[in-house]
Amino acid sequence: MRKNNKIKIIILLGILAISILFSITVGAVKIPLKDTVKIISSKIGFLSSKVDISNIKESNIFIVLSIRLPRILLAALVGSVLAVVGSSYQAIFKNPMADPYVMGVSSGAAFGATIGIVLGLNKGVFGFGITSIFAFVGALITTIIVYNLARVGNKISTTSILLAGIVMSSILSAGVSIMMIFNHDELASIVSWTMGSFNGASWKQIGVIVVPVAAGLVFLVSLSREMNAIVMGEEDAQNMGVNVERVKKMILVTASLLSACVVSVSGIIGFVGIIVPHLFRLLFDADHKMLLPVSAIGGGIFLLLSDTLARTIVPGTEIPVGIITSIFGGPFFLYLLKKSKSRKLI
After folding, report:
1. Among 39, 77, 197, 218, which residue's Cβ finds the most Cβ atoms within 10 Å?
2. CB 126 within 8 A of CB 120
3. Which DSSP string do the residues of 89-116 spell out, in sequence order?
Protein backbone atom coordinates (compact mmCIF):
# COMPACT_ATOMS: atom_id res chain seq x y z
CA MET A 1 0.00 0.00 0.00
CA ARG A 2 1.39 3.37 -0.99
CA LYS A 3 2.24 5.78 1.83
CA ASN A 4 -0.09 8.38 0.36
CA ASN A 5 -3.02 5.96 0.51
CA LYS A 6 -2.21 5.01 4.11
CA ILE A 7 -2.42 8.67 5.10
CA LYS A 8 -5.76 9.01 3.30
CA ILE A 9 -7.17 5.96 5.11
CA ILE A 10 -6.02 7.32 8.49
CA ILE A 11 -7.71 10.63 7.66
CA LEU A 12 -10.90 8.79 6.66
CA LEU A 13 -10.96 6.82 9.92
CA GLY A 14 -10.45 10.10 11.80
CA ILE A 15 -13.40 11.65 9.95
CA LEU A 16 -15.51 8.59 10.80
CA ALA A 17 -14.66 8.88 14.51
CA ILE A 18 -15.39 12.63 14.52
CA SER A 19 -18.66 12.04 12.64
CA ILE A 20 -19.78 9.49 15.24
CA LEU A 21 -19.02 11.83 18.15
CA PHE A 22 -20.66 14.79 16.39
CA SER A 23 -23.78 12.79 15.56
CA ILE A 24 -24.18 11.69 19.18
CA THR A 25 -24.08 15.25 20.50
CA VAL A 26 -26.82 16.67 18.24
CA GLY A 27 -30.55 16.00 18.36
CA ALA A 28 -33.64 17.02 20.33
CA VAL A 29 -31.47 16.84 23.47
CA LYS A 30 -28.04 18.40 22.99
CA ILE A 31 -25.33 16.57 24.89
CA PRO A 32 -21.92 18.24 25.41
CA LEU A 33 -19.04 16.61 23.54
CA LYS A 34 -17.07 16.26 26.80
CA ASP A 35 -19.93 14.29 28.41
CA THR A 36 -20.33 12.16 25.29
CA VAL A 37 -16.66 11.17 25.35
CA LYS A 38 -16.86 10.37 29.07
CA ILE A 39 -19.99 8.22 28.69
CA ILE A 40 -18.50 6.19 25.86
CA SER A 41 -15.14 5.88 27.61
CA SER A 42 -16.88 4.54 30.72
CA LYS A 43 -17.86 1.47 28.70
CA ILE A 44 -14.37 0.81 27.34
CA GLY A 45 -12.65 -1.78 29.54
CA PHE A 46 -9.25 -0.25 30.32
CA LEU A 47 -10.70 3.30 30.59
CA SER A 48 -13.83 2.55 32.62
CA SER A 49 -12.13 2.80 36.04
CA LYS A 50 -10.52 6.16 35.17
CA VAL A 51 -13.70 7.95 34.06
CA ASP A 52 -16.21 9.53 36.44
CA ILE A 53 -19.71 9.98 35.00
CA SER A 54 -21.52 10.41 38.33
CA ASN A 55 -22.15 14.11 37.62
CA ILE A 56 -23.79 13.43 34.22
CA LYS A 57 -27.59 13.19 34.02
CA GLU A 58 -28.94 9.65 33.91
CA SER A 59 -31.19 10.67 31.02
CA ASN A 60 -28.17 11.78 28.95
CA ILE A 61 -26.35 8.52 29.67
CA PHE A 62 -29.44 6.59 28.55
CA ILE A 63 -29.79 8.67 25.36
CA VAL A 64 -26.15 8.16 24.40
CA LEU A 65 -25.83 4.45 25.21
CA SER A 66 -29.30 3.14 24.42
CA ILE A 67 -30.64 5.41 21.67
CA ARG A 68 -28.05 7.35 19.69
CA LEU A 69 -24.97 5.12 19.77
CA PRO A 70 -26.73 1.96 18.47
CA ARG A 71 -28.53 4.04 15.85
CA ILE A 72 -25.34 5.68 14.64
CA LEU A 73 -23.36 2.45 14.56
CA LEU A 74 -26.15 0.68 12.69
CA ALA A 75 -26.31 3.51 10.14
CA ALA A 76 -22.53 3.32 9.64
CA LEU A 77 -22.69 -0.47 9.28
CA VAL A 78 -25.50 -0.32 6.71
CA GLY A 79 -23.72 2.45 4.79
CA SER A 80 -20.52 0.40 4.66
CA VAL A 81 -22.33 -2.65 3.31
CA LEU A 82 -24.29 -0.74 0.66
CA ALA A 83 -21.12 0.97 -0.59
CA VAL A 84 -19.11 -2.28 -0.82
CA VAL A 85 -22.03 -4.11 -2.46
CA GLY A 86 -22.36 -1.28 -5.00
CA SER A 87 -18.63 -1.49 -5.82
CA SER A 88 -18.86 -5.26 -6.23
CA TYR A 89 -21.95 -5.18 -8.46
CA GLN A 90 -20.34 -2.48 -10.62
CA ALA A 91 -17.22 -4.64 -11.04
CA ILE A 92 -18.95 -7.84 -12.17
CA PHE A 93 -21.61 -6.09 -14.27
CA LYS A 94 -19.14 -3.51 -15.61
CA ASN A 95 -21.94 -1.02 -15.15
CA PRO A 96 -21.30 2.20 -13.14
CA MET A 97 -24.95 2.42 -12.06
CA ALA A 98 -25.43 -1.11 -10.68
CA ASP A 99 -26.60 -1.32 -7.06
CA PRO A 100 -29.14 -3.31 -4.97
CA TYR A 101 -31.98 -1.32 -6.57
CA VAL A 102 -31.04 -2.49 -10.03
CA MET A 103 -30.79 -6.09 -8.85
CA GLY A 104 -34.32 -5.95 -7.43
CA VAL A 105 -33.09 -6.78 -3.91
CA SER A 106 -34.46 -3.57 -2.41
CA SER A 107 -37.85 -4.00 -4.06
CA GLY A 108 -38.03 -7.60 -2.82
CA ALA A 109 -37.35 -6.40 0.71
CA ALA A 110 -39.99 -3.68 0.38
CA PHE A 111 -42.54 -6.20 -0.85
CA GLY A 112 -41.81 -8.60 2.01
CA ALA A 113 -41.91 -5.84 4.62
CA THR A 114 -45.19 -4.50 3.24
CA ILE A 115 -46.78 -7.95 3.60
CA GLY A 116 -45.57 -8.06 7.19
CA ILE A 117 -46.99 -4.60 7.94
CA VAL A 118 -50.33 -5.36 6.29
CA LEU A 119 -50.65 -8.58 8.30
CA GLY A 120 -49.95 -6.63 11.50
CA LEU A 121 -46.92 -8.72 12.44
CA ASN A 122 -45.16 -6.27 14.70
CA LYS A 123 -43.76 -8.70 17.26
CA GLY A 124 -40.05 -9.33 17.64
CA VAL A 125 -37.98 -12.48 17.38
CA PHE A 126 -34.36 -12.50 18.59
CA GLY A 127 -34.16 -8.71 18.38
CA PHE A 128 -35.67 -8.58 14.90
CA GLY A 129 -39.18 -7.38 14.16
CA ILE A 130 -41.11 -9.95 12.15
CA THR A 131 -41.47 -7.26 9.48
CA SER A 132 -37.67 -7.25 9.12
CA ILE A 133 -37.68 -11.03 8.76
CA PHE A 134 -40.32 -10.73 6.03
CA ALA A 135 -38.12 -8.11 4.33
CA PHE A 136 -35.09 -10.40 4.43
CA VAL A 137 -37.08 -13.32 3.02
CA GLY A 138 -38.54 -11.08 0.29
CA ALA A 139 -35.07 -9.88 -0.72
CA LEU A 140 -33.70 -13.42 -0.68
CA ILE A 141 -36.50 -14.89 -2.81
CA THR A 142 -36.17 -12.01 -5.30
CA THR A 143 -32.43 -12.64 -5.59
CA ILE A 144 -33.04 -16.33 -6.30
CA ILE A 145 -35.69 -15.53 -8.93
CA VAL A 146 -33.51 -12.92 -10.67
CA TYR A 147 -30.53 -15.26 -10.62
CA ASN A 148 -32.50 -18.13 -12.18
CA LEU A 149 -34.12 -15.88 -14.77
CA ALA A 150 -30.67 -14.73 -15.92
CA ARG A 151 -28.96 -18.11 -15.75
CA VAL A 152 -28.36 -19.85 -19.05
CA GLY A 153 -26.94 -23.29 -18.39
CA ASN A 154 -24.02 -22.71 -16.05
CA LYS A 155 -23.47 -19.08 -17.07
CA ILE A 156 -24.93 -15.79 -15.92
CA SER A 157 -25.58 -13.19 -18.59
CA THR A 158 -24.78 -9.70 -17.29
CA THR A 159 -27.36 -8.07 -19.52
CA SER A 160 -30.03 -10.64 -18.64
CA ILE A 161 -29.52 -10.28 -14.90
CA LEU A 162 -29.79 -6.49 -15.06
CA LEU A 163 -32.96 -6.74 -17.15
CA ALA A 164 -34.41 -9.41 -14.84
CA GLY A 165 -33.66 -7.21 -11.85
CA ILE A 166 -35.37 -4.20 -13.40
CA VAL A 167 -38.44 -6.25 -14.36
CA MET A 168 -38.73 -7.80 -10.89
CA SER A 169 -38.37 -4.35 -9.32
CA SER A 170 -41.22 -3.05 -11.43
CA ILE A 171 -43.49 -6.01 -10.61
CA LEU A 172 -42.77 -5.87 -6.87
CA SER A 173 -43.15 -2.08 -6.74
CA ALA A 174 -46.55 -2.50 -8.35
CA GLY A 175 -47.41 -5.11 -5.71
CA VAL A 176 -46.43 -2.67 -2.93
CA SER A 177 -48.56 0.06 -4.52
CA ILE A 178 -51.59 -2.24 -4.72
CA MET A 179 -51.26 -3.18 -1.05
CA MET A 180 -50.99 0.51 -0.15
CA ILE A 181 -54.20 1.26 -2.06
CA PHE A 182 -56.17 -1.40 -0.18
CA ASN A 183 -54.64 -0.78 3.27
CA HIS A 184 -55.05 2.90 4.05
CA ASP A 185 -54.61 2.35 7.80
CA GLU A 186 -51.09 1.02 7.24
CA LEU A 187 -50.14 3.58 4.62
CA ALA A 188 -47.91 5.68 6.88
CA SER A 189 -45.99 2.64 8.13
CA ILE A 190 -45.43 1.31 4.61
CA VAL A 191 -44.30 4.68 3.26
CA SER A 192 -41.97 5.18 6.21
CA TRP A 193 -40.40 1.74 5.75
CA THR A 194 -39.95 2.06 2.00
CA MET A 195 -38.10 5.35 2.47
CA GLY A 196 -35.68 3.99 5.06
CA SER A 197 -35.21 4.79 8.74
CA PHE A 198 -33.02 3.92 11.73
CA ASN A 199 -35.67 5.04 14.20
CA GLY A 200 -35.99 1.56 15.73
CA ALA A 201 -32.26 0.79 15.85
CA SER A 202 -31.11 -1.31 18.80
CA TRP A 203 -28.07 -3.16 20.09
CA LYS A 204 -29.95 -6.42 19.44
CA GLN A 205 -30.23 -5.61 15.73
CA ILE A 206 -26.51 -4.85 15.57
CA GLY A 207 -25.74 -8.06 17.44
CA VAL A 208 -27.79 -10.16 15.03
CA ILE A 209 -26.32 -8.80 11.78
CA VAL A 210 -22.76 -7.82 12.66
CA VAL A 211 -21.16 -11.27 12.36
CA PRO A 212 -22.68 -12.31 8.99
CA VAL A 213 -22.13 -8.80 7.63
CA ALA A 214 -18.47 -8.73 8.72
CA ALA A 215 -17.89 -12.19 7.24
CA GLY A 216 -19.52 -11.14 3.94
CA LEU A 217 -17.47 -7.95 3.70
CA VAL A 218 -14.20 -9.78 4.36
CA PHE A 219 -15.12 -12.37 1.72
CA LEU A 220 -15.83 -9.71 -0.91
CA VAL A 221 -12.57 -7.90 -0.12
CA SER A 222 -10.75 -11.23 -0.52
CA LEU A 223 -12.03 -11.33 -4.13
CA SER A 224 -10.55 -7.91 -5.01
CA ARG A 225 -7.95 -9.34 -7.36
CA GLU A 226 -10.60 -11.27 -9.28
CA MET A 227 -12.79 -8.15 -9.51
CA ASN A 228 -9.86 -6.20 -10.96
CA ALA A 229 -9.34 -8.92 -13.54
CA ILE A 230 -13.04 -9.06 -14.55
CA VAL A 231 -13.17 -5.27 -14.98
CA MET A 232 -10.31 -5.57 -17.49
CA GLY A 233 -12.41 -8.00 -19.53
CA GLU A 234 -13.69 -11.54 -18.95
CA GLU A 235 -11.41 -13.02 -21.60
CA ASP A 236 -8.36 -11.37 -20.05
CA ALA A 237 -9.52 -12.55 -16.61
CA GLN A 238 -9.74 -16.16 -17.83
CA ASN A 239 -6.26 -15.86 -19.33
CA MET A 240 -5.07 -14.74 -15.88
CA GLY A 241 -6.47 -17.95 -14.37
CA VAL A 242 -9.70 -16.53 -12.97
CA ASN A 243 -12.75 -18.80 -13.12
CA VAL A 244 -14.99 -15.93 -14.20
CA GLU A 245 -18.40 -17.60 -13.94
CA ARG A 246 -17.65 -19.09 -10.52
CA VAL A 247 -16.33 -15.79 -9.17
CA LYS A 248 -19.31 -13.86 -10.54
CA LYS A 249 -21.71 -16.26 -8.83
CA MET A 250 -19.86 -16.01 -5.51
CA ILE A 251 -19.83 -12.20 -5.63
CA LEU A 252 -23.45 -12.02 -6.76
CA VAL A 253 -24.76 -14.32 -4.03
CA THR A 254 -22.65 -12.76 -1.25
CA ALA A 255 -23.46 -9.17 -2.23
CA SER A 256 -27.17 -9.94 -2.53
CA LEU A 257 -27.29 -11.67 0.85
CA LEU A 258 -25.48 -8.72 2.43
CA SER A 259 -27.98 -6.32 0.85
CA ALA A 260 -30.92 -8.38 2.09
CA CYS A 261 -29.43 -8.47 5.57
CA VAL A 262 -29.00 -4.70 5.97
CA VAL A 263 -32.13 -3.66 4.08
CA SER A 264 -34.17 -5.81 6.46
CA VAL A 265 -33.17 -3.55 9.38
CA SER A 266 -32.98 -0.16 7.65
CA GLY A 267 -35.67 -0.16 4.97
CA ILE A 268 -34.96 1.07 1.46
CA ILE A 269 -32.05 3.51 1.23
CA GLY A 270 -30.93 4.30 -2.28
CA PHE A 271 -27.85 5.74 -3.97
CA VAL A 272 -25.26 4.93 -1.28
CA GLY A 273 -23.89 2.13 -3.47
CA ILE A 274 -23.58 4.52 -6.41
CA ILE A 275 -22.33 7.76 -4.86
CA VAL A 276 -19.65 6.41 -2.54
CA PRO A 277 -17.72 4.02 -4.86
CA HIS A 278 -17.50 6.64 -7.62
CA LEU A 279 -16.31 9.35 -5.25
CA PHE A 280 -13.58 7.09 -3.94
CA ARG A 281 -12.48 6.07 -7.41
CA LEU A 282 -11.72 9.75 -7.88
CA LEU A 283 -9.92 10.09 -4.53
CA PHE A 284 -7.99 6.82 -4.74
CA ASP A 285 -8.05 4.58 -7.80
CA ALA A 286 -10.06 1.74 -9.29
CA ASP A 287 -7.99 -1.03 -7.65
CA HIS A 288 -10.57 -2.97 -5.63
CA LYS A 289 -7.99 -3.93 -3.00
CA MET A 290 -8.11 -0.28 -2.01
CA LEU A 291 -11.54 0.69 -3.30
CA LEU A 292 -13.57 -1.80 -1.24
CA PRO A 293 -12.09 -0.92 2.20
CA VAL A 294 -12.24 2.85 1.63
CA SER A 295 -15.77 2.54 0.22
CA ALA A 296 -16.76 0.75 3.44
CA ILE A 297 -15.43 3.62 5.55
CA GLY A 298 -16.86 6.26 3.21
CA GLY A 299 -20.26 4.58 3.06
CA GLY A 300 -20.39 4.54 6.85
CA ILE A 301 -19.58 8.25 7.06
CA PHE A 302 -22.04 9.20 4.33
CA LEU A 303 -25.01 7.31 5.75
CA LEU A 304 -24.52 8.24 9.39
CA LEU A 305 -24.23 11.93 8.45
CA SER A 306 -27.30 11.60 6.21
CA ASP A 307 -29.20 10.03 9.11
CA THR A 308 -28.05 12.79 11.46
CA LEU A 309 -29.31 15.35 8.96
CA ALA A 310 -32.61 13.46 8.64
CA ARG A 311 -33.32 13.61 12.38
CA THR A 312 -32.11 17.17 13.03
CA ILE A 313 -32.79 19.32 9.94
CA VAL A 314 -36.43 19.91 10.94
CA PRO A 315 -36.78 20.31 14.75
CA GLY A 316 -39.33 17.88 16.18
CA THR A 317 -39.70 15.93 12.92
CA GLU A 318 -37.70 13.06 11.48
CA ILE A 319 -37.35 12.83 7.71
CA PRO A 320 -36.83 9.31 6.26
CA VAL A 321 -33.12 8.96 5.58
CA GLY A 322 -33.82 7.60 2.09
CA ILE A 323 -35.10 11.04 1.11
CA ILE A 324 -31.82 12.65 2.19
CA THR A 325 -29.68 10.16 0.24
CA SER A 326 -31.93 10.62 -2.79
CA ILE A 327 -31.47 14.40 -2.67
CA PHE A 328 -27.72 13.84 -2.99
CA GLY A 329 -27.96 10.76 -5.20
CA GLY A 330 -30.41 11.96 -7.86
CA PRO A 331 -28.20 14.73 -9.28
CA PHE A 332 -25.12 12.50 -8.95
CA PHE A 333 -26.88 9.73 -10.91
CA LEU A 334 -27.67 12.18 -13.70
CA TYR A 335 -24.04 13.31 -13.69
CA LEU A 336 -22.92 9.67 -14.07
CA LEU A 337 -25.43 9.12 -16.85
CA LYS A 338 -24.09 12.08 -18.75
CA LYS A 339 -20.47 11.16 -18.11
CA SER A 340 -20.94 7.51 -19.13
CA LYS A 341 -21.81 8.69 -22.62
CA SER A 342 -18.34 10.09 -23.10
CA ARG A 343 -16.16 7.49 -21.39
CA LYS A 344 -16.20 4.24 -19.47
CA LEU A 345 -16.13 4.78 -15.71
CA ILE A 346 -14.84 1.48 -14.40
Report:
1. 77
2. no
3. HHHHHT-TT-SHHHHTHHHHHHHHHHHH
